[in-house]
């Protein structure tokens, strides 16, 4: 199957398939007649696995390591994958906490907003207002 056919089968854009080929996650063969990149069912299965691993927070570098380890004579044990997944989950929880904190600061700033857009505040006044509502101390340049 071609890039477009593979992409449609998986439900992604063709440029994503091409990117995975560029970074070495997929290795199509070339059609000797026209030079097109051709993929097999194995590539579709591999692509599904790549997408699933990304959903679990694995980077493309980690996915490459996971997929290529058997070719290099080693195998990553399930415990390694389990530990990496636990680490990804912790990073995700930390990011959620950071975003919730940012959301609270934004909500507080909006609830304190005493003026609507275009009410005549100068650019310098606006910067001061943002500093006052950012949850951090204003930076004093002088």
Overall description:
The protein has 142 residues and is an all-alpha fold. It has one domain: Orthogonal Bundle (Multidrug-efflux Transporter Regulator, Chain: A, Domain 2), CATH 1.10.1660.10. The protein is built from six helices and two strands, in the order H-H-E-E-H-H-H-H. Helix 1 (3-10) packs across helix 2. The termini are far apart. The mean pLDDT is 83.
Please name the CATH architecture.
Orthogonal Bundle
Q: What is the terminal separation in angstroms? A: 65 Å
**What's the overall average pLDDT, rounded?**
83
Structural class, please? mainly alpha
Residue share in helices?
55-70%
Give the gist of this structure.
The chain has 142 residues and is mainly alpha-helical. It has helices at residues 3-10, 14-22, 41-55, 60-68, 78-112, 123-133, and strands spanning 29-30, 37-38. The chain has 6 helices and 2 strands.
Fill in the keyword field for this structure.
about 140 residues, mainly alpha, Multidrug-efflux Transporter Regulator, Chain: A, Domain 2
Task: Indicate the topology.
Blueprint: H1 3-10, H2 14-22, E1 29-30, E2 37-38, H3 41-55, H4 60-68, H5 78-112, H6 123-133
Helix pairs in contact: 1-2
């Amino acid at each position: 199957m071609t890039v477009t056919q593979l992409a449609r089968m998986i439900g992604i854009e063709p440029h994503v398939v091409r990117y995975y080929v560029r970074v070495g996650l997929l290795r199509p063969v070339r059609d000797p007649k026209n030079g097109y990149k051709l993929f097999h069912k194995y590539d579709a299965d591999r692509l599904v696995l790549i997408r699933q691993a990304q959903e679990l927070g694995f980077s493309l570098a980690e996915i490459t390591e996971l997929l290529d380890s058997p070719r290099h004579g080693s195998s990553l044990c399930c415990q390694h994958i389990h530990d990496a997944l636990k680490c990804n989950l912790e990073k995700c929880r930390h990011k959620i906490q950071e975003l919730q904190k940012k959301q609270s600061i934004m909500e507080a700033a909006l609830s304190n907003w005493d003026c609507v857009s275009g009410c005549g505040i100068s650019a310098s006044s606006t910067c001061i207002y943002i500093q006052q509502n950012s949850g951090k101390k204003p930076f004093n340049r002088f």
